[in-house]
Specification:
- The structure is a single chain.
- By secondary structure, this protein is α+β, with helices and mostly antiparallel strands.
- The protein is built from eight helices and seven strands.
- This is Helix-turn-helix transcriptional regulator.
- InterPro entries: CBASS_pafABC_assoc_protein (IPR051534), HTH_11 (IPR013196), WH-like_DNA-bd_sf (IPR036388), WH_DNA-bd_sf (IPR036390), WYL_dom (IPR026881).
Length: 220
């Protein structure tokens, strides 16, 4: 039920939930009430629709074995291929997940045969990406010094809203005030980055949606 509600970003009717889960509408109403009693923030009512508000976590026991393997594989990739601060955070997250898993699942995660293979050497970042991530989270402008592929230097004010991690390099996606458009900035070519107090005038999600549509990237 929780997973079904998470897939919908707008209120979804009980009839739709019943069809997706293959149960009766009466069962949906009963299960919604049970989840609400357990602390799930589900807004709505019969005949109107239901919407799950963020903040409700499933207990670790609800993880299937393949879900645990997927989490461990993804976290190990980040620990190996992301920048230092994010890699350390990934290792901490994996330790926290392991600590709350039932013993049998924890043993299976430790013995997982899904491994991250060695990749090509990563191009060194020219700037601390933690600065970029904080600016993205707080929707604040960045003042950057940037060198293009020919080595020409420019000073720019940008609105960062995404950070892409590729096998060999990282790319910041931002609205560039100099160009008046969305641009991609290789992290290894950012000479310096200073967070400004000013928040950018558009929401990050709106910029991300515009970029995805322009690039033909589906929402997952």
């Amino acid at each position: 039920m929780i997973q079904c509600l998470r897939r919908h970003r707008r209120p979804v009717s009980g009839h739709v939930l019943a069809d997706e889960l293959g149960v009766s509408l009466r069962t949906i109403y009963r299960d919604i009430a049970t989840l609400q009693a357990q602390g799930a923030r589900i807004d709505g009512e019969p005949g109107v629709g239901y919407l799950l508000q963020p903040g409700f976590l499933l207990p670790p026991l609800m993880f299937a074995e393949e879900e645990i393997e997927a989490l461990a594989l993804g976290i190990r990739w980040v620990a190996d291929r992301a920048d230092g601060a994010l890699g350390a955070a990934a290792q901490n997250a994996l330790a926290k997940i392991a600590a709350v898993l039932p013993p049998d699942l924890r043993d299976r995660m430790d013995a997982s045969a899904l491994l991250v293979g060695p990749g090509e050497p990563i191009v060194g970042d020219g700037v601390d990406l933690a600065v970029v991530r904080r600016a993205i989270r707080s929707e604040r402008k960045l003042s950057i010094a940037y060198r293009d592929r020919d080595g020409a230097a420019t000073e720019r004010t940008v609105w960062p809203f995404a950070l892409g991690f590729f096998d060999r390099l990282r790319v910041m996606v931002a609205w560039c005030e100099l160009r008046g458009a969305i641009r991609h900035f290789r992290a290894d070519r950012i000479v310096s980055a200073t967070a400004l107090e000013a928040r950018y005038p558009r929401r990050r999600q709106a910029l991300l949606k515009e970029w995805r549509e322009a690039e033909g990237i589906p929402v997952r």
